[in-house]
Amino acid sequence: MTATPIFNFSAGPAVLPREVLQQAASEMLDWHGSGMSVMEMSHRGPEFISIYKQAVADLRELLNVPPNYKILFQQGGGLGQNAIVPLNLAGRRAQPATIDFVHTGSWSGKSLKEAARYANVNVAASSKDQAFTAVPPQASWKLTQDAAYLHICTNETIDGVEYNFVPEVPADVPIVADMSSHILSRVIDVSKYGVIFAGAQKNIGPAGLTLVIVREDLLEHALPICPSAFHWKTVAEHESMYNTPPTYAIYIAGLVFDWLKRQGGVAAMEQRNIEKARLLYAALDADDFYQNRVAKENRSRMNVPFYLRDEALNEQFLAGAKARGLLQLKGHKSVGGMRASIYNAMPIEGVQALVDYLNEFAGR
Ligand SMILES: *Cc1c(COP(=O)(O)O)cnc(C)c1O
User: Fold this and answer.
1) N or C: which end of the chain has fewer CB within 10 A?
2) Which residues bind pyridoxal 5'-phosphate (predicted)?
3) Domain that holds residue 326
4) Per the residue annotation, which of 58, 70, 100, 107 is the catalytic one?
């Protein structure tokens, strides 16, 4: 009897490449002949410094990060950045500064609520009255000319809504993008953004690591109350080692970056992600047994929420999926239904297995 392959559709913490986990397992007790686990190393020792430097260099290459941007490894997650970003940028303007937000779902909603503790928040556009099923067209946005910055969430993990454009902004208004759930899934032009941040646990590595990519001129505007450990300038000056960084999470992220390079880089991943998403949405659209409510042009390639027409069958659907090795398909509690997250580490075989199950379940 052969074991059923397992495919994990969790939204986060999420599936990691099997090769990465295997390599980490083989290096667990003795990293490269050092006699130590990466978990046991000083973050200031030559072994860990080499791991850190390689991870930063590989990420810079993968995302084509321009030289005038710093790559920071922080803690505190995406929600931590909801406070850390305004604490670092609100000082760009006379107090109280105004920050523009586009409200496209749960995560941008949390971000704007938190920022309101440090600044005036202007909701420049919102898709709330459409139940967060689309990105409002840029022509409808009411941007503030002298906002400290514009915050957008370019992939709403819970609502399954993804931007398909980079916004146009007034000359001195940087874009801050929460890319937690789709970073490294598609080619981006980093130079169009002032700050990009992402919790690692969706598409990078383990929970506990937060990636921040910040343009150098934006390091200078923190509010005096910004905690030192969260002050980007301080973190940058100390190469992310002002305090102890999440060393093991950085190591795993580095293995993921190396894996991505072996897969052909971000452009190659994007092609695979397009194909995976096409396959899954086609199956959902083919049968009115299932429903995805997001506007077609804003459907996320990473997070695919869907509903069964007959919600009474939800438990049966999930039990049948689990029996086939298709795990963690239950939707977020705030929206119900189902959600399949198909990050970089989800192979097309996993999406095909889900599609086969969708067809079989609808047929029954
Ligand atoms: C998961 C997620 C977050 C929250 O991250 P935490 O690490 O739990 O704080 C923020 N933004 C987006 C878009 C996410 O998907």
Assistant:
1) N
2) 107, 157, 178, 201, 243-244
3) 265-363
4) 107
Boundary-marking domain end, from 236, 262, 288: 262
Distance 200 CA to ligand 1 centre (A): 9
Look at the block and give the residue holding tokens 């929420």: 305
Residue 142 CA to ligand 1 center (angstroms) comes to 26
Q: Is residue 293 part of a domain?
A: yes
Segment 135-151 shows an average pLDDT of 98
Burial of 345 (0-12, 13-18, 19+ CB in 10 A): buried
Compute the radius of gyration of the chain from its Cα atoms: 21
For 46-84, the pLDDT digits (tens) are 999 999 999 999 999 999 999 999 999 999 999 999 999
Q: Write 315-319 long-range contacts (CB < 8 A, 24+).
A: 317/361
Does the annotation count 107 as an active-site position?
yes
CB under 6 Å to ligand 1: residues? 12, 77-79, 107, 153, 157, 178, 180-181, 199, 202
> What's the pLDDT band for 4 if we cut at 50, 70, 90?
confident
CA–centroid distance, 77 to ligand 1, in Å, is 6
Statement: residue 3 has pLDDT above 80: no
Q: Do 253 and 311 reside in the same domain of the chain?
A: no
Active site residue 159: no
Average pLDDT, the chain: 97
Domain tally for the chain?
Answer: 2
